[in-house]
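In this section we walk through a basic example: taking a raw amino acid sequence and producing a predicted 3D structure, encoded as discrete structure tokens. The instruction is simple. Fold the sequence below.
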Amino acid sequence: MRFMVMVKTDGASEQDASPSADDIAEMGRYNDELIKAGVLLAGEGLLPSAKGARVRFTNGTPTVIDGPFTEAKELVAGFWLLDVKSKEEAIEWVKRVPCTEGVESHIEIRQVLEPEDLIPSATAEA
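The resulting token sequence is shown next.
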């Protein structure tokens, strides 16, 4: 089972605030644990929304909106893609994410929709 784990911004990442060397080292150790356990498929931090864009479709017509997205209440600051046996295992890994003292963090866990989830099983058709 694959899970997308999304780190929500605390606002600092939107201000181009770089993490401290200690924070980077701690996150590196956590990522090494994920790699050694064989569950990390991908993981990256993201630049602020000011350096991004959105494409909105209205009746099939695209409109490009450049960042920053100040009206957004929740923006993704980084992510991991994990391959684990269950949602519970994904939760256990996320509970170990290093977080800065005094900073409230929000991390969302969502299971990836797999192709087999879209194909009706043979037993359902019978």
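Looking at the output, two observations stand out. Helices lie at 21-37, 87-94, 115-118, 122-125. The chain has one domain: 2-114. In the next section we compare this with other chains.
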